[in-house]
Amino acid sequence: MKLRVILTGATGMVGEGVLLECLANPTVERVLVLTRKPTGRTHAKMRELLVPDLANLSAVESQLTGYNACFFCAGVSSVGISKEEYEHITHDMTLAVAETLARLNSDMTFIYVSGSGTDSNSRQHWARVKGRTETELLTLPFYAAYMFRPGFMKATPGQRNILKYYGAIAWLYPLARKLTPQFVSTMQEVGQAMINAADFGYTKPVLEVRDIVALAHSTAAPRD
User: Fold this and answer.
1) Mean of the pLDDT values across residues 15-34?
2) pTM of the model as a whole
3) Cα–Cα distance, 19 to 154 (Å, whole number)
4) Which among 184, 185, 208, 213 is least surrounded, fewest beta carbons within 10 Å?
5) Is 110 helix (H, G, I), strand (E, B) or coil?
6) pLDDT value for 165
7) Sign, CA torsion 47/50/54/60
8) Quick one: pLDDT at residue 77?
């Protein structure tokens, strides 16, 4: 089965890394990038759809059919914004996109990037909001849904959208991979794990870092 992917967050670090994996992987037939601003990238199997507000896709619904995977990588840090704004972007916007896509594509696998430490019962606001978002996404009528909780990710060569502090601590990656493998992966592994989840699935809906790495390196028969 060839994957026809809708991807969000391509101008951010995670989304860009996942996009590069999709473009390089023959399992992915085409990619529709939903974005508020151009990515600056072109590729034969990639198309950009500029959307001012992901929370309202009514004007472009006709262009969102015929896809069997969504890699939802859009997000924002909770630092420097109000709790209300963070909840709107992290929860409300994500659910608005997911509900629309579930209605338009019944055979879609939806993959949401939350993050290590996500917990509905956490004392930290961001973790609770992401936990609630995960829980509600898993109730939608997708073919399958997976919640990815990556930790520290080594950027893919060629990435342009890298957080400044990631660049400053990238040299720690080899040591962290050896001493704390439960917290680190490469961006390539995250992207490959998403492709594999959409292609042949995984044994549980919520994937921590170890699960992401294992899935990235696994092989199985693709779904029908």
Assistant:
1) 97
2) 0.93
3) 15
4) 208
5) strand
6) 67
7) negative
8) 85
